[in-house]
Structure formats: structure tokens, C-alpha cells
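pasting for ref
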Amino acid sequence: MERKKIIGIISVVCFIVSFILTIGRYATMGGWIPYGGVFVAIFLNYVLPFLGFLASFFSERGFLKYVGIYGNLLIIILTFVIPIITLIFWFSNPIP
């Protein structure tokens, strides 16, 4: 296989793994992580989609590239951007 196609497959695999684990985290309210799972949760929910997003730009033009870009971007928005925006609004309200 060509190198760019392998990079596209890696990007899609990163998306699929992080998507399944993100849905599992939301479905179980975070209870699936074992004792040392903070590092695992950070890696799988933040770093893996970011690496897949970056890898998708180096992949071959086509279906794998678009799935890698939009899929990993969706996971980044769900696990990083929306919680940050929610925290900004949560702590910006003055105490009555």
C-alpha cells in the first residue's frame, strides 16, 4: 500500500476508537475507567483524536481523508470545545 493511504487508515482508526470510547464514556457516566484510568481517558479522548486529525491532512485525497478530518473534529468538539465553553459560562455568572 501507499504511505498516504496507510496514514488515512490510521486516521480513521483513531476516529473509530475514540468515537466508541467517547460514546461509552457518555453512556456509563465515566464509570468504565479503572483506577489508573485518568491517563488513559486523557489519551483516548483528547490526544488520539488530535493525532488522527493531524494525520488526516497528510493522507491521500478521498473518502479516508474526509472521514478522518470530520470524524476526529467531531470528537474534538464533543470532548474539548463544548466542555471548555460550558465552563466559561458556568463560572462567569456572578453569585447572587
